[in-house]
Amino acid sequence: MNNNSETIDSLNRLLQGEYMAVESFNNFISKVEDENAKNSLKEVQKQHRENINTLASYIQDIGGQPHENLGMKGKVAEIKVNMDLGLKYDTNDVIEKAIEGETQGVNMAEKVLRGNLDDKSRNIAGKILQNDRRSIETLKGLIK
User: Fold this and answer.
1) How many contiguous H segments (helices) and E segments (strands) does the chain have?
2) Which domains, from first to last, does the chain contain?
3) What is the value of pTM for the model shown?
């Protein structure tokens, strides 16, 4: 069924973005010393892990195989984040990078939602989009 294959591909792209987010947040968490910021970053990362579980389970439920690794695109993104932050950074720099990444995630989720999805897939992608938007607001509240 071609439509199901297209849905699985779209959801797997979203899943890849969630894995990239978890990896990026590992990096961000290691770079901040402010406990409040660190805890907020951990909460956002936890939400991305929950999104991964939801997406991976659903992809399997509809007969697909979740792509559960970063892939080349994710590795390049991880290197870019490290280079952008460099050795000198402050908490605001890290938070701004996290917001930038979350915004890219929102854009990806919106693109997936504009695709040809069934109602349940659209609902799942929509919830992830809402979670990412909430995360952006949480992160914006940390900037001093």
Assistant:
1) 5, 0
2) 2-140 (1.20.1260.10)
3) 0.86
